[in-house]
């Protein structure tokens, strides 16, 4: 008979279980969305096509985040429900590693901000080259350019990197010397998006380009957005960090309770 002085806290146990079942379900949903998106693009029937993309496939983000959330949620749920100390310790360590990686990334991003800026420029330009190769990537770039009211990494001329938009004489594309519609300045009076608004715009003088498209690059616009929303960004990071620390503490507390009960048998 176990010693009545040691008990596993039901509150902590079911709080961890309830908290993690949400993560588990959300992770499963994200993985499901990723698999559905891949099946729509025929990637699942031809796995080698994953490596054919020149830029980022946004579906990877869903798959990785969803996979991590699924594993963490599963370990936390089963560990709490079955009072399995191995799974609870795995949950704590995994969460601790993620917290450490986030902290390290934050410090390195601050110390090497110029290098980060160069990498962001390279990343955007690689995705500009692959703009027409993947519909999800195309939508991601269009959303970014519309949201931050920008065009290219450091300016509209970065679209020369794309075979459809470059200004070379041998380019047969109708989009030659143009930009995607997401670079265009919005007219509040227009309800329907004019997808041809960027045609031939870079063939005009710089002074005229400003009237029809956003000429600022996405890298400086992102930096400006970060500065303007520093409190919000810092608040989100601190909130996520506290949530992770809280989860680690609760899991360790539950492990201690379970081990104390097992030791008293």
Automatic annotation (TrEMBL):
Domain of life of the native organism: Eukaryota
Record carries keyword tRNA processing: no
Membrane topology: Multi-pass membrane protein
SUPFAM superfamilies: Tetraspanin (SSF48652)
Subcellular location: Cell membrane; Membrane
Pfam assignment, any one: Tetraspanin
Entry keyword set: Cell membrane, Disulfide bond, Glycoprotein, Membrane, Transmembrane, Transmembrane helix
Major localization listed first in the record, in broad terms: membrane
Covalent S-S links between cysteines: 150-183, 151-167
Gene Ontology CC terms: plasma membrane
Record-linked InterPro entries: Tetraspanin/Peripherin, Tetraspanin_animals, Tetraspanin_CS, Tetraspanin_EC2_sf
Transmembrane segments: 12-39, 59-81, 93-112, 230-251
Protein family per UniProt: Belongs to the tetraspanin (TM4SF) family.
Protein name: Tetraspanin
